[in-house]
Design a protein that fits this description.
With 473 residues, this protein is α+β, with helices and mostly antiparallel strands. 37% of the residues lie in helices and 14% in strands. The protein has 15 helices and 13 strands. It has an 8-stranded mixed beta sheet with strand order 6-8-7-12-13-11-9-10, sandwiched between helices. Helix 5 links the parallel strand 2 and strand 3. The longest helix is centred in the C-terminal third of the chain and has 24 residues.
Length: 473
């Protein structure tokens, strides 16, 4: 079944539907692959193989993804009765969810078979998946390298061919960065496109968005179709799409105005030659496909006030999450129970007042309008790096030298976190590699609500330059 596992989720679903394989065989093949390949990678931290196989007979025959195996990121994406850690030992002994999250509920209704949960850094607060609670996830391209974060476990599992699709989430680049590091497709949806209920109305003050990591554009589009939509009580909704995103695969995007940025306009992010080359080559490809491609992007990208405001809002949300865990277990979470990076962020947040937090939010409100004006002025897409640094080894984000760690994280997310603040959709595509063969992604950013345009262009790029993935088996 190795050849079968190399198929994307859409093709796997078709094979089940057409009777080429039974509804049980895809999950059995994925389980065998996880058992054979994950020992070194450490991407799947909770496994529910027997329960998953027992559920297959109850999947309706007409479910569109009947029998297709999937893994859930262990941050958000709660599943009833299953363990949940958010990458932290603090959650040990806490009760599992009483009910599925809305996204998980919809995945199960669509026929996906949930095999387990994937590794993530503690509370998803960094760009490498090396939690003390579960150990590092290794990159399938080179086990000495990080798979990225915070959706690194999901990315490693998909890149290694264990499953075709895994859930993810992105609060500062946590879908796009691991997609870049592992040679995959990663789309951060528009704010409000996918509900975070019933547990949350929003994540990280609206900056986090649930999504997927996959090997093909059509898988990402089809999976988002399954989980997208407003649910009762959600604080906001994304603009309606013209139709299913899956229908946008293969649609002509027309001639688009695309700006591109290789060096960060703030001037405080060191230029990286391989990243510059990746964007430059992608720009040339888009121009060859008939688009108007010119250097430049929104002036607001260069505003020096952004990193501190963004970081303060993330830290405030982390402090609230830690306080909530303390209430849930009936005793305060002490700093020593947290990883040093998170303890420092919580302490910093607690030194700020509520009014300072609101002022940060209001500053980001203005930033969002200033950045969005570039699209309103007639541009369609912005091309930028997915990762502001070259692919990095495990341990490059030191757990104890916080000054070095925060500086490196800030450089890494410099091209992604702004899009979280604005809520716009962005997609990372695997279009380049280093001399050592490590993947390097580039991202395209669309105006608020325009995932349809991203899918059209991404599919056009994929046809013109088919994405290369690791050999399976």
């Amino acid at each position: 079944m190795d050849d079968f596992l190399s198929l994307d989720a859409v093709a796997q679903a078709r094979a089940v539907r057409d009777g080429q394989v039974s509804a049980r065989e895809p999950a059995e093949a994925a389980i065998a692959a996880i058992e054979a390949r994950d020992g070194e990678l450490n991407s799947v931290i909770f496994r529910r193989f027997e329960r998953a196989l027992a559920e297959i007979d109850d999947i309706p025959v007409d479910a569109p993804f009947r029998g297709v195996p999937i893994l859930l990121k262990d941050l958000g994406w709660r599943q009833a009765g299953e363990p949940y850690s958010a990458g932290s030992n603090v959650r040990d002994g806490l009760d599992a969810a009483a009910a599925d999250g809305y996204g998980v509920e919809l995945l199960r209704q669509a026929g996906f078979v949930i095999l387990g949960r994937t590794n993530t850094p503690e509370f998803g607060s960094t760009i490498t998946t090396e939690p003390l609670a579960f150990g590092p996830t290794r990159n399938p391209y080179d086990p000495e390298y990080s798979a990225g974060g915070s959706s690194g476990g999901s990315a490693a599992a998909v890149a290694a061919g264990m499953v075709a699709l895994a859930t993810a989430s992105d609060g500062g680049g946590s879908i796009r960065i691991p997609a870049s590091m592992c040679g995959l497709v990663g789309l951060k949806p528009t704010r409000g496109r996918v509900s975070m209920g019933p547990d949350l109305g929003e994540g990280w003050s609206g900056m986090s968005a649930p999504g997927f990591i996959s090997r093909t554009v059509r898988d990402t589009a089809a999976a988002l179709d399954v989980v997208a939509g407003l649910r009762p009580g959600d604080p906001y909704d994304a603009p309606a799409l013209p139709g299913p995103l899956a229908a946008e695969v293969g649609a002509d995007p027309g001639r688009l105005r695309i700006g591109f940025v290789t060096a960060h306009p703030r001037g405080d992010v060191p230029a990286v030659p391989v990243v510059t080359e990746a964007v430059t080559r992608a720009a040339a490809l888009l121009e060859a496909l008939g688009h108007d491609v010119t250097p430049g992007g929104p002036a607001a990208l260069g505003e020096s006030g952004f990193p501190a405001r963004y970081g303060a809002v993330v830290a405030a949300n982390l402090a609230a999450q830690v306080d909530s865990l303390g209430e849930l277990r009936g005793r305060t979470v002490e700093p020593a129970e947290l990883e040093p990076r998170n303890a420092a962020m919580v302490a910093a947040a607690r030194r700020r007042s509520a009014s300072e937090h609101i002022l940060d939010i209001q500053w980001l409100d203005g930033f969002r309008r200033r950045l969005a004006a570039w699209w309103s002025a007639g541009h369609d897409l912005l091309l930028m790096p997915s990762l502001g640094v070259e692919p990095f080894r495990l341990g490059w984000i030191p757990p104890d030298d916080l000054g070095v760690a925060f500086g490196r994280i800030a450089h890494a997310v410099s091209f992604t976190s702004t899009v979280n603040a604005t809520g716009q959709p962005a997609i990372s595509l695997p279009l380049h590699t280093t001399e050592a063969g490590l993947p390097v992604g580039v991202q395209l950013v669309a105006a608020f609500g325009r995932e349809d345009l991203l899918v059209r262009v991404a599919a056009q790029v994929e046809r013109a330059r088919p994405f290369q993935h690791l050999a399976m088996g």
